[in-house]
């Protein structure tokens, strides 16, 4: 399903009409993201989203950035017990101990990834395949996301199962799952060629 909006543009059905989703869909989702800290941010946010609405995370993203030192890998890796207590008391983020501990553990793991986190993740960029006509054509996981999750876990990452890994791949441009009629599909395709 695609949605035609008041502005006359057709978008993927999940974008709905919520301004936060529309902006995220049009300006971010599927566009290539590189750089260790930026990829770490997306991994962390996808992990926090697990079991929740993405809109919840999107609306708290600025709070997450403040709470997690702008997602600087070295800064988060250095978090200790005082930081843990601070994060658990921060109503501006999702206060889930296991996810917070995973974020810190993942930062520490990211410091040890040979060649960097961004390079590791981007090894799993998929060649363009069949263009999804509807959201029903978009998988929840793929062999590539299963392999990425396995590789991240091998490096010590947590909360990175195949479904979360696929959501990451979609979000940062390793795949382009904008449906065929979506107005940003071609722009995202062009960015992936660069």
Automatic annotation (TrEMBL):
It holds the Pfam family Adenine_glyco. It comes from the Bacteria. InterPro entries: Adenine_glyco, DNA-3mA_glycosylase, DNA_glycosylase, Tag. PANTHER family: DNA-3-METHYLADENINE GLYCOSYLASE 1, DNA-3-METHYLADENINE GLYCOSYLASE I. NCBIfam families: tag. This is DNA-3-methyladenine glycosylase I.
């Amino acid at each position: 399903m695609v949605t035609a909006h008041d502005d006359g543009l057709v978008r993927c059905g999940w974008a709905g009409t919520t301004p936060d989703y529309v902006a995220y869909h049009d300006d971010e989702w599927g566009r290539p993201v590189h750089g260790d800290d930026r990829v770490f941010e997306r991994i962390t946010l996808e992990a926090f989203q697990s079991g929740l609405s993405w809109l919840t995370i999107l609306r708290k993203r600025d709070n997450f950035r403040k709470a997690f030192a702008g997602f600087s890998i070295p800064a988060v890796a250095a978090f200790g017990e005082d930081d843990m207590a601070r994060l658990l008391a921060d109503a501006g983020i999702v206060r889930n101990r296991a996810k917070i501990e995973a974020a810190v553990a993942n930062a520490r793991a990211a410091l040890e990834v040979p060649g960097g986190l961004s390079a590791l993740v981007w090894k799993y960029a998929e060649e363009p395949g069949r263009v999804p006509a509807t959201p029903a054509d978009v998988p929840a996981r793929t062999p590539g996301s299963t392999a990425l999750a396995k590789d991240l876990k091998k490096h010590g990452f947590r909360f990175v199962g195949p479904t979360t890994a696929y959501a990451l791949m979609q979000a940062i441009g390793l795949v382009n799952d904008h449906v065929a009629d979506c107005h940003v599909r071609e722009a995202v395709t062009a960015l992936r060629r660069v």
